[in-house]
Amino acid sequence: MRFSLLDRITDLQEGKCITAAKILRADEDYLADHFPRFPVMPGVLMLEAMFQAGAWLVRQTEGFANSCVVLKEARNVQYKGFVEPGQELVVTAEITKQNELLTTLKAQGNVDGVLAVRAKLVLESFSISDRYPVRVAADEYGNQKHRAEFSRLLGEGA
């Protein structure tokens, strides 16, 4: 299942940092089961939103050279607040270290300017065909889908 936990990218400085946003809608499926009397965005999805923002920064920084960006590690994850329906989670991620395979980022999510979550993330990027040479078409398909989603998040063509 593919899903996007970001509505838009509001700022991106290639090789440096990204800011993205997610408005939590009251009709999101998981809210029916995640504390029905006190619906809030699950912490793991807040972490996923930070990862997704970081992945877009890595993809753009690498010129979409790799079809896969995966979360390798999440360190020092701290939850400080909730995201309730109608609120906007503003996610920032900043590259602190990067080499050919791994990117380390400082990431955080704020609601109304107040820290809700923060973590240090390590992302790994690679192409499927590097590991499975017969799967070159998977890289092409993946990169095409990523570029289309990236354009949507940037609001291009809207």
**What spatial form do the alpha-carbon principal axes imply?**
globular
Q: State the CATH architecture.
A: Roll
Number of strands: 6
How large is the radius of gyration?
Answer: 16 Å
- Major sheet description: 6 strands, antiparallel
Number of domains: 1
| Uncertain stretches of 5 or more adjacent residues | none
Portion of residues in beta strands equals: 35-45%
Distance between the first and last residues' Cα: 25 Å
Query: Within the CATH hierarchy, at the fold level, what is the topology?
Result: Thiol Ester Dehydrase, Chain A
Order of helices and strands: EEHEEEEHH
**Mean pLDDT figure:** 95
**Helix share bin:** 25-40%
Which structural class do the helices and strands define? alpha+beta
- CATH C-level class: Alpha Beta
Spatial sequence of strands, sheet with the most strands: 1-2-4-5-6-3
Work out the helix count.
3
Please name the fourth-level CATH homologous superfamily: Hotdog Thioesterase
